[in-house]
Amino acid sequence: MWTPFKRLLWQWRGVWITAPSIAALIIVLRVAGFLQPWEWGVFDQFMRLRPPEASDNRVVIVGIDEADVKNIGEANFSDGIYAKLINKLKARQPRAIGLDIYRNIPVEPGHQELVKIFKSTPTLVGIQKVIGDSKSETVAPPEALLENKQAQVGANDLLIDADGKVRRSFFFVPDKNGETVYSLGLLLAGYYLEKQGISPEPVEGTDNWKLGKAVVVPFEANDGGYVRADAGGYQILLNYRGSSRHFNTVSMSDVLEDKLPPDWGRDQVILIGKFGQSFNDSFLTPYSSGLLSLPVPMNGVEIHANLTSQILSAALDNRPLIKSWSEPLEGLWILFWAVAGATLTWHLRYIGGVKSFSVRRTASPIISAGILLGISYTALLSGWWIPVVPPLLALGGSVIAITAYIARTAGDIRKTFGRYLTDEVVANLLENPEGLKMGGERRKITIFTSDLRGFTALSERLPPEEVVKILNFYLGCMADEITHYQGTIDEFMGDGILVLFGAPTGREDDATRAVACAVAMQLAMTRVNEKMNEWGLPALEMGIGINTGEVVVGNIGSEKRTKYGIVGSQVNLTYRIESYTIGGQILISEPTLKEAGSSVKIEGQRQVTPKGVKEPITIYEVAGIGAPYNLFLRKEEEEFFPLTEELPIQYTLLEGKDVSDKLFQGSLVKLSAKGAEVLAQELMPAPLSNLKLNLLQAAGEDVYAKVVEKPADAGRFYIQFTAKPPVVAAKLDALYKSLEALGTGK
């Protein structure tokens, strides 16, 4: 049985060695940025080869060109001209008007008329230039719009790649004061969609936004063909509708002279901007030039029109936004084509006859390259930008290098696997004859999961780079503790961790080590929060759930993509147990307590009926664990202070990941450092319920909390906050400190 297997390895040795070597070389070249210009070029060519799209009649443009300058007789139009133009456009009842022209300096005559129009037209959006290191590089918004800056001032900054082309756009961008400035295109699309009953909604647990039928995913530094691009702000890739002059465009003179059809502009988004080379407001795009033609730039206002149209089409028509694969998937894609080239060439080495071998050896890579280009082009039509140049090079490189492949050792393979699996799992896969077998075995193990409380709300207020920095430090600290207690990290899920005790290798003390690991991790949060304080960020709190039961553990997936993991209802039950925790708490199931033994110190217990479980179960709160670990949590008794004046609130229940649409009235009557006592005027939520509440004195700021099991008077209940916006946190902290100083606690 072993001999045929060794023969197979030897027969295909060229593929096993050459394909990974070539793929690794190509990936290195790509990561170094050498292939970025080529990837951009292929992307641009694919964009131009797409079937023509109809013009979006929801977006129209008033273009100011050299002819308008000649007709009006002014090189720099006064505010009065723009006031007259906007008045005429307002009369056509558009849904929004975007003025892509800087008006931050009064230009008489007519300045007061323009100010009046700015203030009386809530759907008129002006512009400012946000990005810049000095005052000379930024442009302030019109003063008349500053009162409603969030809704009437959009950033018109454009992102220009190293080759001078605009392929990305801002969704929104922070200014020098850290305030969010939405892009011109997003604000205009927002006004249009508002009439359709559509508004942006954040996707919980991610940086994504739900907008009608579309889910907007932010651009990241290595998306598509980019390498280490500046992904600051919130960017998306532009999915242009076509080349320049694709939108319905009329001249400024036609508007002023009433030469347009009566229904032109009604219920549409109108953008006003400059057309013509003399205005120096044009940019190169993927549509600017073909392989044999000179570049034709696109006016800036047309780029903003494309962004507006892109948002509208995605939200209303399900037109795809441009997305990209994750870096690991792109790496596998490159490897696949390296293997394809190596396999084809290696297989054809046995074909008899030089002529036959040459023809087939030449035709096979060409056909493969054609298939690759066809797949990539079809993917772009569906909104996916997948690598083209790296897999093409991997395909060609493996064909060329198949006879000169470089030997790789088993230690190199082990190192490669070790990047995404623990050493123990790698050893099981490579050294156990059954290690690579698909499927798994039924086994009793202890399942451990942890999650940060309120981290999603915190991450939404921080730049992605800051979130990654926090996660890396936090996960690094936790991974050290897990490794120390011989746990197997099965998965990192954002700020959540799934750990196995008992797989792939089972031990008698799996449950005991799991509990000890949980206590050690909670104690390690002190070190994490010291770093958070050093960074000027709020403290983090973690909840941990542990359960013991039978699952199927092993290689799950397919022959092409396999994951070492677990499957079974006990996994879901572990997540349910963890969901009952508050910050700093460890909850374990009854089977875990029995397995861990009497060394586990229990502080309390309760019966719960998790979703999907027919009968109630008992869960236990861990206070610590005795010998040989002797680890104990530090319990701080909270002191609640009566408020001198009740704080009215509205609250609603969180059901899983959904927010109930029923609002209930109540008020905060007592306050502690981490929680509050609530006087309910209507609904009394059950213990362990998750709430979203709003202080009526800080409307629009969502606060999240969990109902805790603490005795309270009739009509009252206690909560512990899990996430507070900075404004609310500052208000409550100041109020608590003032109450604490009075010493009226109970």
Describe this structure in words.
- 39% of the residues are buried.
- The chain is flat and about 90 Å long.
- The strands form seven sheets. Strands 18, 19, 20, 21, 22, 23, 24, 25 and 26 form a nine-stranded mixed beta sheet that branches.
- Strand 27 (641-655) and strand 28 (658-659) form a beta hairpin.
- It has 746 residues and is of the alpha+beta class.
- The termini are far apart.
Instruction: Determine the number of helices (DSSP H or I, runs of at least 4 residues).
Output: 21
Number of strands: 33
Helical fraction = 25-40%
Sheet having the most strands: 9 strands, mixed
Mean pLDDT: 84
Q: Spans with pLDDT under 50 lasting ≥5 residues?
A: 350-357, 405-414, 416-421
Percentage of residues in DSSP E strands: 15-25%
What is the subunit arrangement here? single chain
Secondary-structure topology with pairs:
Blueprint: H1 2-11, H2 13-31, H3 36-49, E1 59-64, H4 66-72, H5 79-90, E2 96-99, H6 111-120, E3 124-128, H7 149-152, E4 153-155, E5 158-159, E6 168-174, E7 180-182, H8 184-195, E8 201-202, E9 209-211, E10 214-216, E11 234-237, E12 248-251, H9 252-256, E13 269-274, E14 282-283, E15 298-299, H10 300-317, E16 323-324, H11 327-347, H12 354-381, E17 384-385, H13 389-401, H14 410-417, H15 423-431, E18 439-452, H16 455-460, H17 464-484, E19 488-493, E20 496-501, H18 510-534, E21 542-557, E22 562-567, H19 569-579, E23 586-589, H20 590-596, E24 600-608, E25 617-625, E26 631-632, E27 641-655, E28 658-659, E29 664-671, E30 675-680, E31 690-695, E32 703-708, E33 716-723, H21 726-742
Parallel strand pairs: 1-12, 1-13, 2-3, 2-13, 3-4, 16-17, 21-23
Antiparallel strand pairs: 5-6, 6-7, 6-11, 8-9, 9-10, 14-15, 18-20, 18-21, 19-20, 21-22, 23-25, 24-25, 25-26, 27-28, 27-29, 27-31, 29-30, 30-33, 31-32, 32-33
